[in-house]
Amino acid sequence: MSQVCKVELEGKTYELPLMFGTEGEKAIDISKLRDLSGYITLDSGYKNTGATTSKITFLDGELGILRHRGYSIEDLAEKSNFLEVAYLVINGELPKKDEFESFTKRIKENMLIHEDLRAIIMGFPSSAHPMGVLSATVGALTAFHPNSLDPNISKDALYQTIIQLIAQMPTIAAWSYRKQVGRPINYPKRNMSYAGNFLQMMFDNPWEGYSPDPVVESALDKLFILHADHEQNCSTSTVRLVGSAQASLFASISSGISALWGPLHGGANQAVIEMLEMIMQDGGNVEKYINKAKDKNDTFRLMGFGHRVYKNFDPRAKIIKKAADDVLKKLGVNDPALEIAKKIEEIALKDEYFVSRSLYPNVDFYSGIIYRAIGIPTEMFTVMFALGRLPGWIAQWKEMREQKEPIGRPRQLYVGNPLRPYVDMQNR
Ligand code: CMC
Questions:
Q1: CB of 302 closer than 6 A to ligand 1?
Q2: Is 307 a catalytic residue?
Q3: Which domains does the chain possess?
Q4: Does ligand 1 have an atom closer than 6 angstroms to the CB of 266?
């Protein structure tokens, strides 16, 4: 196969190198096109633009495939646990027993946050959205770990920063919830799992005590795994872009959290439950909302439906749908929102509008049902997504630095006014 592609512009032919990924993906390297011809490429929303080469996650949207470091998401969700997947995504290989034990131990030892950081969390008004608190507090970690700001940070110091982030995000998230509901905080405990510790910090109380239901603990761990990475999505691209300016890991991930907050991205899981509640309050007329979603004059969209890259099905949604059924059954919860969600899915999957546009339920469609069943407040759903996505953000940031990628700086096509003379204020 030819290794170059020929582009003809204004009567001249330019040869551009072709590149191939390990799973047969194909790319044209256009990095020299402007120097050669004066042309840039234009692709609003980067719908067909690769920003990097990466060894972390493989995704085939047409076939509904998702793999991390070569392992299928189905295998990882069934056989692994979140910290093992985090290690895999960040370091490239599944950990050996001693590596896993030392990784887990270091994370547990670092879960406690500085009391001054706790004071910052407590300083937010209880009306603060937990994603805003999370983004601000993760950014504030730079103040407590100033060596993280060094662009030439040593490998060991960076690894300690990574451990601190994975260890402390659940504590920050749970304490911001305790502040919001006006209850005393719970400190992390050494003898509990990562997911169990988060649940304990969220829900323990001095009167009754609390130990997480194993079904809930394992469902949460699985949800974290399903969110662990998703290649160059909006928040991950944000993390890589911010990091490309040599901003610290904490600062870059704080920006990623803000990007994730948007309702078209991670914020969709909150929006899904709000949509299901709205439909229930409106008498459960699913057809009415399907029609609204199809109406181009209506801004309503079916939240939890559609995906930029999955055009067949989202493999994570399949696993989550089953997990939602299992969790609700085991906890004996009868959530009418699940029935509405299933009805929407059933109708939409047969409707020409959704079929012709390849719109399927995405990861956010059923995850909120599980979060709700296990007592997570709706405003915290996207925080749960962020906790799961953290290893992916870290791995992508680290890869970008290790590949010594240049600062991210897209071009544009200027379509504004040409040069014109300045006009004095009295003459405008
Ligand atoms: N409801 C109704 N119509 C939709 C929807 C939807 N949820 N999603 C896409 N469409 C239509 C859209 O109107 C357009 O129609 P037309 O071709 O007639 O103009 C067509 O489908 C293509 O949509 P698009 O907006 O051009 O596609 P995109 O790749 O830019 O957007 C998306 C992807 C996920 C932002 C979009 O599908 C959406 O807004 N979904 C709802 C929000 C959501 O669930 N987001 C979570 C994504 S998964 C979690 C994550 O990784 O962030």
A1: yes
A2: yes
A3: 4-50 (2.20.28), 72-265+379-402 (1.10.580.10), 268-374 (1.10.230.10)
A4: yes
